[in-house]
C-alpha cells in the first residue's frame, strides 16, 4: 500500500520516471510502500517479533576479544554464515534442498535460519516459520472437543509453503507420536518436491542436538559411579528421520565450545549496570 504523503507518487503507488529511450516519461511502481509490504509478508510467514531484525548483515562474527571469544570462534561463526549465504545465493540449484544448523544454544542458529528465510522471501519465494515445540502443542490442543483448528489446518502451511524454517527440532521429549509428526512433515515435503526444481521445497532446520555422543562420569550420593550420556539428534527424532535429513539438508554444525551469546550479553549488561 502506497504512503499517502509520498512526494514521488502522492499516494497513488506509481511514480513517473524518464523512459530509457528518452521519449518522455513512464509510470512505474513506487518504492514508498516496500517496507510496509515486506512487513506484511514477514507477518504472514509468522516470524516472531524477536527475530524480525535477523539478517545476514546483523549476524556478528567479529567477536574475538581474547577472553570469552577466540579467533577460532570468530572463524567458526564466519564459516556458518558463509554456508548460509552460499545456499541462499545458489537456491534452488544447490545439491541439497535445505539446511540443518546444529550447535549449542545461543550461537545464532535461528538468526541464520531467519536470515535465509528473509532473503528468499525477498526474492519472491513463499516462506513460513515454525517453532517445533509450539507446533506440536498446537496439534495436541486441536484434538480437544471444540478446538478452533484441526491438525490438517495447522499442518497445511507447513506442508505447502516453499521455504519452511523448523526451529529447535528435537526440543520436545520424544514419543512415537512426536516422531510420527516430525517424520510426516519432512517426508511429505521431500516427496512433494520435484527433482527438476519446478516445484522446490526448502526446509531449514535448527537444533541444539548433535550427532556425537558425549559421555562423562558422575557419582551418586551413595558413592556409586555412573556414566552420563548426552542425547543425540537421532535419540530425539529417530534414526530413520535423521537419515532422511542427511539427504535433504546440508549440515552446518557449530562447535560445542562456542560461548552462549545470549548468556554473555546478559552478564555483560549486568556488569555495566
Architecture overview:
There is one protein chain. The chain is an alpha/beta fold. The chain folds into 2 domains: 1-32, no CATH class; 40-259, 3-Layer(aba) Sandwich (Rossmann fold). It is 40% helix and 17% strand. The chain has 9 helices and 9 strands. It has helices at 34-44, 71-90, 109-122, 132-142, 151-160, 176-192, 233-237, 239-248, 261-272, and strands at 14-18, 25-29, 98-102, 127-131, 163-167, 202-207, 215-219, 225-229, 249-253. The strands form 3 sheets. The chain has a 5-stranded parallel β-sheet, sandwiched between helices. Strands 1-2 form a two-stranded antiparallel sheet. Strands 7-8 form a two-stranded antiparallel ribbon. A hairpin with a 5-residue loop joins β7 and β8 (225-229). α2 (71-90) runs parallel beside α3 (109-122) and α6 (176-192) runs parallel beside α8 (239-248). It is globular. Mean pLDDT is 86; it is low at 269-273.
Residue-averaged pLDDT: 86
Beta-strand fraction estimate:
15-25%
CATH topology of the largest domain: Rossmann fold
Order of helices and strands: EEHHEHEHHEHEEEHHEH
Which CATH top level class of the largest domain fits? Alpha Beta
N-to-C span: 43 Å
How many structural units, i.e. domains?
2
User: How many strands, which pairing sense, and closed or not: the largest β-sheet?
Assistant: 5 strands, parallel
